[in-house]
Automatic annotation (TrEMBL):
Designated name of the protein: ATP-grasp domain-containing protein
Leader sequence segment: 1-22
An MF annotation (GO) of this entry: ATP binding
Organism this protein belongs to: Pseudo-nitzschia delicatissima
Any matching Pfam family: ATP-grasp_4
C-alpha cells in the first residue's frame, strides 16, 4: 500500500521548511568542541524549567550559557539524553542558547498525570515537592507570545550584562519540536515569534485532506478522497469505489492523526460504517478540546509503500532516508 509516507518527499518540496526542523546558524561547527559534549553528565534540573503562568516567566525558562545573539526553542523535549544532547550541542558547538517550553497538549497531559498520581498517593503537598519541574507552557496568543519574547530578551541581555545591546540583538533562530501532537503549536509559536527559519503557518502540513488537496492543485497525481460529515456520505463514496473494477478497499481515517492510528482498510459497507463511527467525535491529535467533526475516506492505492525522510533549509531539500 502506498500510504501518506510516500507523499512526504512531495510535501517537503511544496512546503519547504517544516517548523519541527526549522533552525540554522551561521556558525561553523567545531568538531573538537563537539567531542567535548557529554549530555549524560548534565542533570534534569538543568534541562527543565518550572511550570508557572502560560509562557513562563524568564526565571522559569532554562537559558543555557552561550551567545545572547542566537536562541533555539526546544518544545516537548522529554528524554534526558536526547534533550540534553540537543541543548549541549546547540550551546557548545554553535553558541546558541536554548529555551524549553511545552505544547498545550503535552502540558495538559503531564499535569493530568501529576493529578492522578497525587490522588493515588494521598499526599498532595509532599508529592508536589518530590515532582521534577516541568518546562513552562507555550503562549496561547500572538499578544502573549510578544510579551514572553520581550521578557525573554531582557533576561538574556541581563544575564550577560550586555551593556549597549538592544532588543534586536537577540534572534530566535528556530524551534525544534520533539512530539507529533506539539507540531501545530510549534508552527503557530514560530509564526508568532517571527522565527528566522520559518515560512509561516500552514495547516496543510498536518491536515491529511488538505495535504492531498494541495498536491492535486499542483498537478500531482493523488488518490480520490471525500471529507464526510455523515456516515451516509462515507457509505456513498465507498459504494462508488467498490463499484469500480479495481477498487476493493477504501481507507477511512481521521483528518489529523499520527502514522496509522485509527486508519482502517475497509472492504465492505459495514466496516466503513464501523470505522466512521469510531473516528467521528474522537479527540483530535494535539488538540485535547477538539473532536473530529468529519471523517476522511480515500481511494486505496495498491503497491509497495516507501517512506522518504527529508530536511529542508533555505529552500534546499535533502533526502536523509528512504525505507
Amino acid at each position: 500500500m502506498i500510504g501518506n509516507r510516500l507523499l512526504l518527499f512531495i510535501v517537503a518540496w511544496l512546503f519547504p521548511v517544516a517548523s519541527c526542523i526549522a533552525w540554522a546558524t551561521a556558525a561553523t561547527p567545531d568538531p573538537a568542541r563537539a567531542r567535548s559534549v557529554n549530555a549524560c553528565d548534565d542533570t534534569r534540573s538543568k534541562l527543565w524549567g518550572v511550570v508557572g503562568k502560560r509562557g513562563g516567566s524568564c526565571e522559569s525558562n532554562v537559558v543555557e550559557e552561550g551567545s545572547t545573539h542566537r536562541v533555539l526553542i526546544l518544545m516537548d523535549v522529554f528524554c534526558d539524553f536526547h534533550g540534553l544532547y540537543l541543548t549541549d550541542m546547540a550551546r557548545v558547538v554553535y553558541g546558541v542558547r536554548c529555551v524549553h517550553v511545552l505544547s498545550d497538549y503535552m502540558a495538559n497531559y503531564f499535569l493530568s498525570k501529576q493529578e492522578q498520581r497525587m490522588e493515588l498517593m494521598g499526599d498532595r503537598e509532599g508529592f508536589e515537592d518530590r515532582m521534577p519541574p516541568l518546562p513552562p507552557r507555550m503562549p496561547s496568543s500572538h499578544e502573549e507570545a510578544s510579551e514572553w519574547h520581550r521578557e525573554l530578551v531582557e533576561k538574556l541581555l541581563d544575564d550577560q550584562k550586555s551593556i549597549g545591546k538592544n532588543y534586536n540583538d537577540v534572534e530566535i533562530k528556530g524551534l525544534i519540536c520533539e512530539s507529533d501532537p506539539g507540531l501545530d503549536g510549534a508552527e503557530q509559536l514560530s509564526a508568532w515569534l517571527n522565527v528566522t527559519n520559518h515560512n509561516g503557518y500552514n495547516e496543510a502540513r498536518r491536515n491529511k485532506f488538505l495535504t492531498i488537496s494541495t498536491l492535486a492543485s499542483k498537478g500531482i497525481p493523488t488518490v480520490q478522497q471525500k471529507l464526510c460529515d455523515s456516515v451516509e456520505e462515507a457509505i456513498e463514496f465507498a459504494t462508488n469505489q467498490f463499484s469500480s473494477l479495481s477498487a476493493k478497499i477504501v481507507v477511512v481515517k481521521p483528518v489529523r492523526g499520527c502514522a496509522s492510528d485509527d486508519v482502517f482498510l475497509c472492504d465492505d459497507i459495514e466496516s466503513v460504517r464501523s470505522a466512521y463511527e469510531t473516528i467521528k467525535g474522537s479527540t483530535v491529535l494535539g488538540s485535547p478540546t477538539k473532536k473530529h467533526e468529519s471523517v476522511l475516506v480515500q481511494e486505496y492505492a495498491a503497491g509497495q509503500e516507501y517512506a522518504v525522510d527529508t530536511v529542508s533549509k533555505n529552500g534546499k531539500l535533502k533526502i536523509v532516508a528512504v525505507w
